[in-house]
Every structure is written in structure tokens, then in C-alpha cells.
Amino acid sequence: MSATAASADVVLAADGKVDGVALGVLLFFFLLVTIGGFWAANWRKADNPHSLDEWGLGGRSFGTVITWFLLGGDLYTAYTFIAVPAAMFATGAVTGFFAVAYTILIYPIVFIFMPRMWSVSHSKGYVTAADFVRGRFDSRFLALAVAGTGILATMPYIALQLVGIQAVLDSIGLGGESNAFLRDLPLLIAFAVLAAYTYSSGLRAPAIIAFVKDTLIYLVIAVAIVYVGVHIGYGQLFDAAEAKMATKNPATGAATGVFVPASNNYWAYATLALGSALALFMYPHSMTAVLSGKSRNVIRRNTAILPAYSLLLAMLALLGYAAIASKTSVIGVDGKPNPQLAVPHFFRDEFPSWFAGVAYAAIAIGALVPAAIMSIAAANMFSRNIYKEFLVPNATHKQEAQAAKITSLVVKFGALIFVLVLDKQNAINMQLLGGVWILQTVLAIVVGLYTRWLHRWALLAGWAVGMIYGTLAAYNQASRVTKHFGGSLANFPFTDTRVYIALSALVLNIVVTVVLTLVLRAMKAPEGVDATTPEDYYAEKAGPEVTDLPGTEGGLPVPGGVRA
Amino acid sequence: MTQPSRHRLSPGVAAAAGILLAIPIIALLWVPLYARKDPELWGFPFFYWYQMLWVIICGFCTAGAYALIQRDRRGRNGGPR
Which of A99, A239, A298, A552 is 20 to 30 A from A286, comparing alpha carbons? Predict the structure, then answer.
């Protein structure tokens, strides 16, 4: 296990100096995206900027190309640039390369159900998945469960982005101060600037910044691919990785990692990929990016072109192996090994400072874009499904948008708590932990798109059981660094097969929900009124026939600011 | 309001699109199928290049399913939508 303690590879220690050139390049790009972020408020400006549709969904006006950038910025995050290569560097394929399978599986799955989600949301003016659940199942508490889960699950995911930014700052040589405040000051400043332009520009800000981010990322990865091919050679790269993964830890006798899964890992690999894929589009931020598209077909077209990013992810994952092959040191400025530094240190050691700076900028901006979208999405949920539903039922559009803006700040600080509490040595686990929670909403949302057969109370009970089991199982996983929340694989109940906890919890959730549905149906428990009609699930591009719909349920506003 | 006839796919098209979408899912969830080192390609072990190849194939599968569905819809509504 002790990838980082395999100190034979670790020859260089940090010299503690700040790399001025790299820092300058990073600051230049940071300034550029900051200006872009604030300017975004004026981009495609609407008549009614103070509504949640505008702030939180960019006016639902984005076409295929912008949605591609936005979803790309949304789904391929510091998770891709830092956490996956770090996992590859530390323990190899099962903990890292499953991300490639995962980011392929999502597209056929999304192709099937997301257009229905888009249509019903457009037809009824839904901004969040919880809005849909509220309308479909006529249950405020089920909607509350979906919203609360969304907000909770988003926090460790944002925390992962912060860890990515930290890794970059550390590589430049910042953060070595003994004073805790000074150490975290650069991160806090980056964070405050992010919070400020998210607050003022809403979803338009990350949409603009995503262009910069992707240009940088594609440039950096193209250079890295050629460099590895010429200077290391892919055969050499895989040989070095295989040798490292097979190395036994002298203390435990266990191999360092997995190069190619063996039969005892098949289930772990498949469930991590499937669980992550099913979970991804349940996250509020993925939903937000989809709903901001201007037509039903935008999302389907994107399922054909988004996989381009998955190739990028695969190449980035392999940079974790490149770091092994080129014996990159992962010692941070604090003198401790940290696998998250594998990719930034690879660029630091192998390239001139200015290019390392470009790579750092790509990683840092690649973390800022999703952090902005995630906090906006979680804020939408709070505002719609908690603030307006339970706290201030007759809030105006402006109040609703204001509540969302403030929540976007609160969510970011919730994420900071996860940064402090969770094991930063294993950042990929932060995303997997979020997945354990968010996957428990899949029945209400995805099955709900097709049928109301599952009873609302049964869904709530199944959700609760899945959440409790998943949280406890994750809590009981220890790692080298932490006693709790140290991993996302556990034995499937009553077996010795290790699987992703999210899927075991979902199985339990399904069993409880189906059994209780049968019971509740036999008892003829009231099932509420469905606010949607079958036609809503096929609504096309927002035309007059959509916006002129009469009142929507629950006082939810329809797009275009028409009040119900 | 939306007309009901617009969205019903013919059963053949729905099945074909469904199969196109199921292929990549099966290809990747069936781990024993590709958890091996050989044959290598340009130094990449099979396990790695197989999955990267499926990124591309999957893009074609979803694009194919999209094209099928769009063609079916256009045929029924007597014009592009």
C-alpha cells in the first residue's frame, strides 16, 4: 500500500524555493480567468438577470458547443488531473484506471434518460432534480431528501478540487510556512476570488472560463503525450509501473498495487466504474449543466462528442505511471510524500519552468470551473427545495436568486471542512464518498422519469436505509492515514467480494423500496398527485407551447419569468 | 402543445438504438474479458488500450443511436425537426 513510502523511488526532496517563473505564468492565467469570470455577467445578458433561471442556468440558452465545454469543465475536474493520476501512481489500475471505464459508461446511460429529464424540466420549469421529484411524487420530504443529499455529496467533490489547487501551490513552493494561516493563504485567496465571480456572474462565469481551461489542458496533454513517447517510451512506462505495483511491502507482504486486475478484483473494478457512472449525473452540477442546454438534442449530441475528454483522462491517468517511470519525487514542501503531487511534480521536473506554469494553470483552472458549477448547483437546490419550500414559501424571484448566491458561499466553506477532515493522501476517495451518497437518489430520479410505481414513502425509506448503510460502511474503512472514511470498497454483505460501497447501498435501497412499495400499495397508502403528464417527457425546444403552459405545481416559476 | 405522434419511435429503431447503447456497457463491465496484458499495442498492455479504444467506439455507438432516432423522427413528421 505504501506507495509514497516506497522511498527507493523518492530521491529528490523539496528545496523549499518558490519557482518565480511558474508562479508568474500561473498568476497571469489566474488574472485572465478572473477578468473573464466577472465579465461573464454581461455575456448574453438577459432582460431579467435577477432570477434563478438566469443566475443558475445561464438563461437555459446554451447550445451544443458551449454545453460541451461546460460539461467537460464540469465532469473532468481536478479528479481527472490530480486524483486519478495520483491513484495510478500510488496503487495502480483498480483504484485509478477504472475512471476510464466509468467515463465511457456514463454516455450510453445518459443518452437514455437525460433527454426525458431535460424535457420535463423545461416543460415544468424545474431547476433541480429535487424539483422534479417534488412534482412527480407530490412529496416535499422526498424532494428534501434528494436536495439534502445533493448538497452533502457535492461538498467532498468540491473538497477534491481544493486539494487539486493545493497540489499546484505546493509544487510551486508555496505553503511551506509553519504558520497555518500563511500556509493556506494562497488557497484562501484563490477561493475568495472564485466565490466572488460565481456570486456575481452565476453559471455564465464557468462557461466562459471553461474555454480557457480546455485550451490549456489540450495543449499540455498533447505536449506530455509526445514527451513521454520520445523520452520515456510507452513500453518503458508500463514496465516501470508493473514493477512498482508488484513490489511487496516489506512490513505487510502485500503488493503495492494492481497493474492488471486479477479475478479477486473484477467486481471491485466493475462496480467502481458502474457506480461512479450512475452517480455522476445525479450530482446537482451535472444536472445543472444539462438543463442549461437550449434543446433536448443538445445532450444527446454531447454524448457522442464528450468521450473525447475520456481519452484525455486516460492519457492523464497514464501520467501517474510516467511519474513512476521518470522517478518523480512526490515529497511536498512540508517534507512529506503526497501522491497528489505526482503530475505537477512530473511537469516541474521534466519541463522548463514556464511550461510547468502553464500545466499548473491548466490544473488550477480545471479545479476552479467545476468548483464554481458545483457550488452554483448545490445553491440552486438549497434555494428551490429548502429555502422556498420550507422557509420562505412566498419568496420572490429576486429573493430566491439571492438565497442561492449566499448558499454558494456556504457550500464552499462546507467543502473546506472536508478538506480538513478527510485523508488528502487519497483524494479520489473524496469523489467516491460523494458517490456513495448521491447514488441513493437514483431511484427517485431515474426510475421516477419512467414510472410512478415506486411509492413515495417507500422511496424515502429506501433512501434512508441506503444512506445509513453507505455512510456506516464508508466510516468503517481505515486507511494508512485515517481511521475512518479511508476507502470506498467494502465486502458485499454476507460475501468476501469487495465492491464499491455505493452499489451495495443501492442494492439494499432497491430491496427496501420495492418491498415497501408492495406493502404500501396493498394498504392503498395515498400516492399523491402527479404534476407531470406523459407529454412533458418529450417536450422539444422551448417554444411558445412550452412557456405558455398554465400554472405549474407548487408555485414553481416557468422559464422566461412567467409566474404561475 | 406537443403532438403525441412526434415521439413514438418505431419498435425496430428503438431496439437497434438500445443494442447500440448496450454494447459499450457490456464491453466494459465484463472485466475478465479484457483484464490481461497481451496482446500489446505500441507498448500498451491489452487492458489499457482496449479501454481507450472503447472511448472511440462508444462515441460512434451513441452517435449511431442518435442518427437512427433522428431519422425515424424526421420520417414520421414529414420534415426536419
Answer: A552
Specify the pLDDT at position A551.
Answer: 35
Name the residue among A106, A539, A118 with its Cα closest to residue B62: A106
- Closest B-chain CA to A111: B62
How far is residue A150's CA from residue A410's CA, in Å, rounded to a whole number?
14
Contact at CB, A545 and B51, closer than 8 angstroms: no
Average pLDDT score over residue span A489-502: 78
Rounded to the nearest angstrom, the gap between the alpha carbon of residue A271 and the centroid of all alpha carbons in its chain is 18
Query: A241-264 burial, b for 16+ CB within 10 Å, e for fewer?
Result: bbebbebeeeeeeebbbbbbbeee
pLDDT, one tens digit per residue, over A258-305 is 777 877 888 888 888 898 888 888 888 888 777 777 778 777 777 777
In the chain, the amino acid numbered A440 is Q
Q: Look up residue A109 and give its three cell numbers.
A: 446511460
The yes/no answer to whether this complex scores an ipTM above 0.85 is: no
Asked if A532 reaches chain B (Cβ–Cβ under 8 Å), the answer is: no
d(C-alpha A58, C-alpha A375), whole Å: 14
> Which residues of chain B does A103 touch, with a Cβ-Cβ cutoff of 8 Å?
55
A24 CB neighbour count, 10 Å cutoff: 12
Report the pLDDT value the prediction gives residue A510, as an integer from 0 to 100.
92
Name which of A245-254, A540-549, B46-55, B65-74 the model is least confident about: A540-549
Q: Please answer yes or no on whether B54 and A104 come within 8 Å at the CB atom.
A: yes
Work out the angle at residue A310's Cα, subtended by the Cα atoms of residues A162 and B16, and round it to the nearest 5 degrees: 135
Residue A329: what are its φ and ψ, rounded to 5°?
-80, 140
CA distance, residue A457 to nearest chain B CA (Å): 32
Residue A230 is inside which H or E element, if any? Answer: none
Burial of A328 (0-12, 13-18, 19+ CB in 10 A): buried
Cell of A446: 431515474
Look up residue A439 and give its DSSP letter.
G
Q: B30 vs chain A: nearest CA distance in angstroms?
A: 7
3-state secondary structure A461-503: HHHHHHHHHHHHHHHCCCCCCCCCCCCCEEECCCCCCEEEHHH
pLDDT for the residue A511: 92
Nearest to B25 among A105, A535, A545 (CB): A105
In residues, how long is chain A? 564
Identity (one letter) of the amino acid at A353? S
Instruction: Please tell me what DSSP assigns to residue A536.
Output: G
pLDDT of A20 over the 70 cut = yes
The pLDDT tens digits of the residues spanning A172-197 come to 777 655 555 666 677 777 777 777 77
DSSP for residue A558: P
Residue A521 near chain B (CB below 8 Å) = no
